Amino acid sequence: MDKIEFTDKYFMKQAFAEALKALEKNEVPVGAVVVCNNQIIARAHNMTETLKDVTAHAEMLAITAATEYLGGKYLNNCTLYVTLEPCSMCAGALNWAQIGRIVYAAGDEKRGYTLFRPKLIHPKTEVSSGIMAVESKEIIVDFFKKKR
Q: Which residues contact 132 (CB under 8 A, 6 or more apart)?
């Protein structure tokens, strides 16, 4: 049996699988996972339509699940993998959770946090992007084309 390599791409693929679950539910296809010590401790995807809750973004649901799992409100030893750049609301929540690292796939040129407040993220949080960006952007573009 092959040993699994726990790379950023491996975990982004897990987040992308969550985005596909959102798509199946006719939600904006964004998925997220929270990883601590190479273990996924939370999985989530957008649920705003299902829950009729504008705050039910993948990141928000993943933060809640991860803090419940850990039994505390801080995620400073964790990494969030998400298929789309967090919005200002999610970036603010990630700041308060003091997430250690954020890896997002595709940038969001309309609502991404970097457009509004790049310093919204906690100063100690490491941010990187671009892994699986093409696939993540395509799934969202296709979703909205079908809506129009």
A: 9, 12, 13, 16, 83, 105
Contact 88, 95 (CB under 8 A): no
- Give the separation between CA 46 and CA 118, rounded to whole angstroms: 23
Query: How far is it, in rounded angstroms, from Cα 31 to Cα 24?
Result: 12
Catalytic residue numbers read: 59
Q: Give yes or no for a contact between 95 and 73, defined as CB atoms under 8 angstroms apart.
A: no
State how far the Cα of 34 lies from the Cα of 113, in Å rounded to an integer.
19
**121 — phi, psi (to 5°)?**
-75, 145
Residue 122 scores a pLDDT above 90: no
Beta bridge pairs of residue 80: 34, 102
- Spatial distance between the Cα atoms of 38 and 145, rounded to a whole number of angstroms: 36
Under DSSP, is residue 138 helix (H, G, I), strand (E, B) or coil?
helix
- pTM for the structure as a whole: 0.94
For residue range 49-62, what is the model confidence (pLDDT) as tens digits? Answer: 999 999 999 999 99
